[in-house]
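Budget justification aside, the reviewers requested a transparent look at the raw inputs and outputs of the sequence design task funded under Objective 1. We therefore reproduce one unedited record. The lines immediately below are the structure tokens for a 381-residue chain.
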């Protein structure tokens, strides 16, 4: 039976507090963590739902509050390099160089775990995921609590990750005692996950730190788990990171992605939008600042600008949640294959769409496009 959630959830606007009140709020948050409770806090990637990483019971509360499958391990957040040593005894000079270059920052590193790290935190795996976030509130909370903090994204399992404290409140109200509101996050998609337990590093989840950034420092090849590479990603390839196999980031409406030259994409989305609206469906369209004015739907939004792909990453989850809030039953989106951030953005979007995507080409006919390739059952038209 589903648990009745009736806890009082306090949301603290940290930017409104003076130095003393801020410190007092962080003291209280730290105490909650030490006592085995949960606190949501901002990181530079998305909001996290934190608990004492070395306390199996506390970690179990995270799974309960999120409704998260228990085989999906948590990332342990640290504030000092020495803490990485407490989690893993296998930090080679190559791994250390990666840590020192990218930490604090949006990179999670998988290493063999020490026996003291509870199975409840690692989902029973012999490895542990470690990250040092750069957001000052995250670092302060870790230091004040005196604990390493296990934290997944602070959304209900399956929903888009939260990029504001309001998103966290929406999902976690009644389930956790405290949210530290640090305003909207900066990056907006989760950390790059790098598995360093094998001979050569493998990216298990693409993120803001790109394969190019990593190989420059590593000095050798960085592999991308084929199960998460946007061009080969399919429902039936098994991902190495347990969490990547779950439906994730999904809005409630049916999301379909379009790929191809901009004019063909616009024409195809408008054609499908018109068809759906005629059938009485409320249509949401996700374009960019460059294309927003060309679309006809019930809700049309620019997720960001193609001139600045980081704005697309930052706006993605907010837009998916907005499509839900505005009750869009059918959602059409452009694709975003940027060279650096494309893998990270398309990994989330393809999963959110349940892999529904349609490739289009410009066409000469009245409609202005034709379908080159689709994996949508029935062809969608
Ligand atoms: P979240 O923080 O909710 O975005 O999810 C954390 C991600 O890290 C999930 O996809 C997990 O499967 C992955 N992860 C955590 N620990 C490990 C590990 N030891 N090995 C592989 N993947 C991991
Ligand atoms: Mg998550």
């Amino acid at each position: 039976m589903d648990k009745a959630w009736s806890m009082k959830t306090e949301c603290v606007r940290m930017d409104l507090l003076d130095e003393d009140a801020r410190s007092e709020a962080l003291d209280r948050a730290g105490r909650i963590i030490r006592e085995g409770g949960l606190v949501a806090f901002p990181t530079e990637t998305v909001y996290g739902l934190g608990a004492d990483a070395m306390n199996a019971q506390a970690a179990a509360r995270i799974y309960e509050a999120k409704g998260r499958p228990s085989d999906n391990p948590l990332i342990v957040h640290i504030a000092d390099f020495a803490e990485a040593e407490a989690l893993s005894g296998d930090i080679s000079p190559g791994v250390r160089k990666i840590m020192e270059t990218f930490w604090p920052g949006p990179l999670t590193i998988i290493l063999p775990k020490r026996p003291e790290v509870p199975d409840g935190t690692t989902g029973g795996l012999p490895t542990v995921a470690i990250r040092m976030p750069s957001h000052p509130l995250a670092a302060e909370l870790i230091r004040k609590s005196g604990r390493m903090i296990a934290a997944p994204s602070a959304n209900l399992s399956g929903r888009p990750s939260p990029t504001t404290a309001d998103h966290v409140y929406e999902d976690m109200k009644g389930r956790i005692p405290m949210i530290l509101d640090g305003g909207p996050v900066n990056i907006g998609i989760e950390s790059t996950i790098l598995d360093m337990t094998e001979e050569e590093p493998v990216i298990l989840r693409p993120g803001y730190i790109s394969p190019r950034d990593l190989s420059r420092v590593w000095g050798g090849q960085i592999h991308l788990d084929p199960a998460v590479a946007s061009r080969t990603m399919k429902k039936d390839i098994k991902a190495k990171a347990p969490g990547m196999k779950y439906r994730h980031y999904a809005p409630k409406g049916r999301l379909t992605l379009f790929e191809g030259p901009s004019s063909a994409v616009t024409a195809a989305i408008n054609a499908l939008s018109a068809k759906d609206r005629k059938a009485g469906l409320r249509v949401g369209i996700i374009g960019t600042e460059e294309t927003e004015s060309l679309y006809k739907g019930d809700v049309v939004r620019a997720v960001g600008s193609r001139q600045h792909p980081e704005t697309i990453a930052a706006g993605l989850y907010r837009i998916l949640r907005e499509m839900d809030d505005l009750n869009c039953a059918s959602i059409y989106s452009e694709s975003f294959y940027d060279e650096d951030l494309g893998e990270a953005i398309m990994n989330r979007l393809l999963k959110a769409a349940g892999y529904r995507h349609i490739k289009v080409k410009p066409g000469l006919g009245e409609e202005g496009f034709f379908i080159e390739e689709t994996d949508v059952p029935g062809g969608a038209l």
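Residues 262-278 form the longest helix (17 residues). The chain is about 30% helix and 20% strand. Computational costs for records of this kind are itemized in the attached budget.
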